[in-house]
Write a structure and sequence with these properties.
Length: about 550
Amino acid sequence: MGSTKYIFVTGGVVSSLGKGIVAASLGRLLRARGAKVSIQKFDPYINVDPGTMSPFQHGEVFVTDDGAETDLDLGHYERFIDTNLTRLNNVTAGRIYQDVIAKERRGDYLGATVQTIPHITDEIKNRIMEATHQLSPDFLIIEVGGTVGDIEGLPFLEAIRQFRYDVGFKNTCFIHVTLVPYLKASGEVKTKPSQHSVNTLRSIGIQPDILVCRTERPLGKGERLKLAQFTNVAPEAVIESIDMPILYEVPLVLEKEGLATQVLERLNLTLPEPNLTSWEAMVQQVKQPVTNLKIALAGKYTGLSDAYLSVIEALKHAGYSEGASVEIRWINTEDCVDDETSAALLSGVDAIVVPGGFGNRGIEGKINAVKYARTHNIPFLGLCLGMQVSVIEYARNVAQLTRASSAEFEPKGDQPVVALMEDQKNLADKGGTMRLGQYPCHLLKNTKAAEAYGTDVVMERHRHRYEINNEYIDILTQAGLIFSGTSPDRSLMEIIELPNHPWFVACQFHPEFKSRPDNPHPLFKGLVKATVALKQKTQATGSASPAVSP
Ligand code: GLN
């Protein structure tokens, strides 16, 4: 298509507007027209990356193939545009300042006074050019995090304002996403907050080309015209983005509203008609589940779906392909204090997932949840920490290592079946120092894992400091645990499973990051498939699955 076109997405009125979904949806619509798309997220906070931020505040940390710890919006981008992203796709203010200060210390600025303009803004623009050169997309969509009017967002907005002049008006398009609230008392949708938000943006020097209006009620013709008139946006470029119960339907709704057409018009481009057939077929599947599964998510951020965003999405994706809707049953593992309470909390669930995590809060409860799944033949998937606690559970209750634990929770324990990885031992910094990103994993033939993947080598993304302690592999193997995936040199255990169980599989990596709505991850698919099969069998025979001895 030639040189890269840039589409900037800003947000106004309130945070959590779903700008990321708008950016990701637009990406899908352009990709459906045959274009190569990448999406970059600018995060105006001072953390160098979100890797050290609490999921309570910031939701999950999304990990890329190349080991960057990034904002969860990158997960949406990957799922919508079906393209693996890199560390170039997430830029924080912290990273920009860190690099500018490093340059200043090296003397790169040759005695100049280092300032927000031009030094910080230039660094931001460099990041756009770096992504352009290394990823060479037809379209680079750039989402600026935060809300227009935030002090910390100003350098980013100034940088993109300048960028339009640097690369030319015909190569850039500005989209502003706002909220058009509905006032119940007067029964009207209100356009004033959007007008103010665009005014703020204009006072910084940016006139949006397209307005995307998040709304719970359809916008009338009059409201659209009013918005256009008072924000100086063409009436046809006022795009309604109505709340959708199905996330993956948003691109289809925005296509009908003409979002991509407006973008192409502003950029003076003609592309082929979009091919959304497979996406539409996936959305149809979402709408017609034949069964419903209750899947327990046994973690510590109960009810906080953003903290487990990719896990929940991956479960749903697997559900789509197996004709099942997935209902998450949140289990706070601090409440699973013994076999009885665990049984009470987990009875009636169709499957159990123990996700990743850090620290020892709720650990014993996680171990109890694993035991319940293992001894009651409940399909189970353990992710990262979920694999580590599964090994501890098996060691304690089957391999008779009764004091088995992880060095993470019991640094002085005498049966550390999970231990700190060798190369983690002398690290002082917490940020960006885990075993991160994609590594190969070899699968053992004739195992559930090999069958699910249908291949013998896979690449999966990691984020951990601890690993299964190789000193215990023999004892655990003799006790019946199967290590069905390992690093190529067999020094790191990557997947475990149990043979005589409908589906008991756990992995040291995070398969959830690679799941796509129209291409679910094999391990999630394996879990859901086994769960649906077991449910059908139980319904046919009218009996609950028998418990096996502990
Ligand atoms: N806390 C564990 C470790 O560092 C697991 C990490 C995770 O679940 N992502 O190894």
